[in-house]
Amino acid sequence: MDLSIVISAYNEAESLPELISWIHRSLKASDYLHDATYEIIIVDDGSTDGSWNWIQQTAKTDPTLRAIRFRRNYGKSPALHCGFEAATGDIVITMDADLQDSPEEIPELVRMIREEGYDLVSGWKKKRYDNRLTKNIPSKLYNWTARKVTGIHLHDMNCGLKAYRNEVVKNIEIYADMHRYIPFLAKNAGFGKIGEKPVQHQARKYGQSKFGMSRFVNGFLDLMTIWFLAGFGKKPMHIFGVCGSLSFLAGFGITLWLIIEKVVAQAGGLKYRAVTDQPLFYLALVAVVIGTLLFLTGFLGELISRNSPNRNDYQVRERI
Question: Which residues contact 141 (CB under 8 A, 6 or more apart)?
Answer without folding.
Answer: 216
